[in-house]
Write a structure and sequence with these properties.
Blueprint: H1 2-25, E1 41-44, E2 47-50, E3 55-61, E4 64-69, H2 75-84, E5 91-93, E6 98-101, H3 107-141, H4 146-179
Antiparallel strand pairs: 1-2, 3-4, 4-6, 5-6
Helix pairs in contact: 1-3, 1-4, 3-4
């Protein structure tokens, strides 16, 4: 039973790390990345639709993102969504493709983005600790012998430490990427 609970907790903690990776990928660095706009919500025929479900997104150059909508009539709504997103990118289009030039980041903006990344890492740590709390609650309710309960709680803490360290590592890597000129 404790193995089953621990396995479930491990999967949920892994999910927190995966969510963190997706969040961090969406934070703009000096380089172009399709992750910046992949999940951008566009109002398409009255339905909020992720941009990656209505266009081909590519990065042909280090500082350029191209968006080729499958439906050319959606160009205007895609441009509006990009402008409203707060990414700080200005779209330009030639009737077929929307181009987003990714300008180099200023030092001030780098610091802001580093703080945003740190907040996302802290949110992931909180999610991991919440999983641990749930695991401990289930272990207490399982009516295990005292020594087995103690070992299971130690394993829960080790698991928490492992995933917390992983979240910190991912955050440090993103911070270094943001600070890179």
């Amino acid at each position: 039973m404790t193995d089953e609970l621990t396995r479930d907790a491990r999967e949920r903690m892994r999910g927190a790390i995966e969510a963190l990776d997706e969040d961090l990928a969406g934070i703009r660095t000096g380089r172009a990345s399709t992750a910046l706009v992949d999940r951008l919500s566009v109002e398409y025929y009255g339905v909020p639709t992720p941009l990656n479900q209505m266009a081909t997104i590519a990065t042909p150059e280090a500082r350029l993102i191209t968006i080729r909508p499958w439906d050319q009539r959606a160009m205007g709504t895609i441009e509006k969504a990009i402008l409203a997103s707060g990414l700080g990118l200005t779209p330009s289009n030639d009737g077929q493709v929307i181009r987003l030039a990714v300008p180099p980041l200023t030092e001030e903006r780098r610091e802001e983005l580093t703080k945003v990344a740190a907040r996302r890492v802290e949110e992931a740590r909180v999610a991991i600790r919440n999983v641990r709390r749930d695991l401990l609650h289930h272990l207490d309710a399982a009516e295990l012998p005292e020594d087995a309960l103690h070992r299971a709680k130690e394993r829960a803490q080790e698991l928490t430490d492992e995933f917390t360290k992983l979240a910190d590592t991912h955050g440090e890597r993103k911070a270094a990427e943001i600070r890179e000129v």
